[in-house]
Amino acid sequence: MTVSLLWFRRDLRTCDHPALRAAVDAGTSVLPVFVLDPRLLAPDRPRSRRLVASVRALADSLDGRLVVRTGDPVEVIPGLAREVGAERVHVTRETTPFGRRRDAAVASALSTDGRRLITTGTPYAAEPGLVVTQSGEPYRVFTPFARAWRAHGSPPPVPPPRRVTWFDGDVGSVALPGGSAIGAHGDGAGELAARQKWIDFLADGRLGGYDRDRDRPDLDATSRMSIPLKYGEIHPRTLLADVASHPEGGTSGAATFVTELAWREFYADVLWHRPDSAWQDLRPELTDLAYDSAPESDRLVEAWREGRTGYPLVDAGMRQLLAEGWMHNRLRMVTASFLTKDLHVWWPIGARHFLDHLLDGDIASNNHGWQWVAGTGTDAAPYFRVFNPVRQARRFDPAGDYVRRWVPELAHVAGAAVHEPWLHGNGYVNGYPRRVVNHDDERREALARYELVRR
After folding, report:
1. 128 and 50, same structural domain?
2. Are residues 309 and 320 in the same domain?
3. Fewer C-beta neighbours within 10 Å, C or N terminus of the chain?
4. Residue-wise over 264-277: b if at least 16 C-beta within 10 A, else e?
5. Does 383 have pLDDT greater than 80?
6. Pair 116, 130 in one domain
7. Do 309 and 433 contact (CB within 8 A), yes or no?
8. What's the pTM?
9. How far apart are CA 80 and CA 67, in angstroms?
């Protein structure tokens, strides 16, 4: 029986896995492999540790059959294919700029001795690039994209193969790096943990109230599926199918949840069409916008990174990021707005910090989310939106519970008063820092800079 490689990347699961199904349908034995690419792994990053934990869970689910190699996939994959006599390498199609370049290089290397890279499926419900306007152009704004994306639909989850003939030859494998992976709220890694987390979310009523509660960081109201989606421990197609068949699937909460998945799909589509937008402004309108420079900016950026800005909601979010490798989406917008609009810092500096610390750090969602806030991205009315950290706090953390959880220096301040310690005589008795800037002044400054480049 011939053999095929199944190269796992952002698809660390066995259910609803089109590439696995394609390998099995080809009538070959299947050798599962994961490549530890040093370019993507930094031992001191939470995301790297979380990735290794997910790979370890996959290896356990495959009863030790997963072959792990270290190095550049352009060399490792063709070398392993030659070693076991595999003519085909099955993968989930990659959509990021780095992944597309890497896969093109691997496909070229395989072709030199007659082997093929077979791509099946993507990490998205609708493959990036497929949802376009009637004239064939990519969508530039979310709302019409989401409408077309819903109309386009997605295929049902791919049934798991009834039987997989795994390759049973003697193939060398390296040990996975040791160490534990941190997780948001103690989340476990792997397909089984992801599935259980999703089942719990559907079972406890959070789907029906998602539209009402999802913006409240003081509540446990979100699914936190962004981390399993990042590593492909579960596919968005599975989530959509489960929502559609759920008793609460017709509620406004369910519709809002699907819309959040659509945002993920939209940003992947934007990056597909504009790979340069990963680290450059998507829209040129703000190319000449003035940003603050070092050394004063460096001091303020460091205060932002460490959660020492003097604005409790901003600091709570940044401290949660450092502690858990996760941050509530409302706080991602608030903290991004503070860096770009209050501190006048170009968005890639913040986007890089988030990617260094977020367990769900996805370049399409993260960097285009930053651009949406900064005003350089897909938003139709961008730069003059400036999040007021106090108003945001009073609206979305009304009793101050979230802030007190992450800013212990303010634990003694009761209720919503915690959001404005400068108004209370005892606000700074435990060493909480004073405000690094005045929001009202910096908002006016941000808008003034915007007006200059609009002319």
Report:
1. no
2. yes
3. C
4. bbbbbbbbbeebeb
5. no
6. no
7. yes
8. 0.94
9. 10
Number of independent structural domains in the chain: 3
Q: Which of 223, 254, 273 is the last residue of a domain?
A: 273
Q: What is the pLDDT of residues 126-152, one digit of tens each?
A: 999 999 999 999 999 999 999 999 999
Pick the more confident residue, 128 or 381.
128
CATH number at residue 264: 1.25.40.80
Domain hosting residue 25, numbered range: 3-121
Are residues 133 and 241 both part of a single domain? yes
Q: Is residue 329 part of a domain?
A: yes
Whether residue 256 is found in the same domain as residue 304: no
As a three-state string, the secondary structure of the chain is CCEEEEEECCCCCCCCCHHHHHHHHCCCEEEEEEEECHHHCCCCCHHHHHHHHHHHHHHHHCCCCCEEEECCHHHHHHHHHHHHCCCEEEECCCCCHHHHHHHHHHHHHHHCCCCEEEECCCCCCCCCCCCECCCCCECCCHHHHHHHHHHHCCCCCCCCCCCCCECCCCCCCCCCCCCCCCCHHHCCCCHHHHHHHHHHHHHCCCCCCHHHHCCCCCCCCCCCCHHHHHHCCCCHHHHHHHHHHCCCCCCHHHHHHHHHHHHHHHHHHHHHHCHHHHCCCCCHHHCCCCCCCCCHHHHHHHHHHHCCCCCHHHHHHHHHHHHHCCCCHHHHHHHHHHHHHHCCCCHHHHHHHHHHHCCCCCHHHHHHHHHHHHCCCCCCCCCCCCCCHHHHHHHHCCCCHHHHHHCHHHCCCCHHHHHCHHHCCCCCCCCCCCCCCCHHHHHHHHHHHHHHHHC
Q: Which of 223, 239, 273 is the last residue of a domain?
A: 273
- Residue partners of 59: CB distance under 8 A and separation at least 6: 34, 65, 66, 68, 176
Residue 226 or 178, more confident: 226
- What is the per-residue pLDDT across 328-337, written as a single tens digit (0 to 9) for each? 999 999 999 9
Is there a domain that residue 166 lies in? no
Residue 422 lies in a domain: yes
* 382 is a domain residue: yes
Judge contact between 151 and 191, C-beta under 8 A: no
Structure-derived torsion over alpha carbons of residues 369, 374, 380, 384, reported in degrees to the nearest 10:
140
Q: Find residue 89's DSSP bridge partners.
A: 5, 117
The token pair that represents 79 in the structure block: 């070398």
Closest by Cα among 42, 52, 46 to 320? 46
Q: Where does residue 173 rank: exposed (0-12), middle (13-18), buried (19+ CB within 10 A)?
A: middle
pLDDT at 183: 43
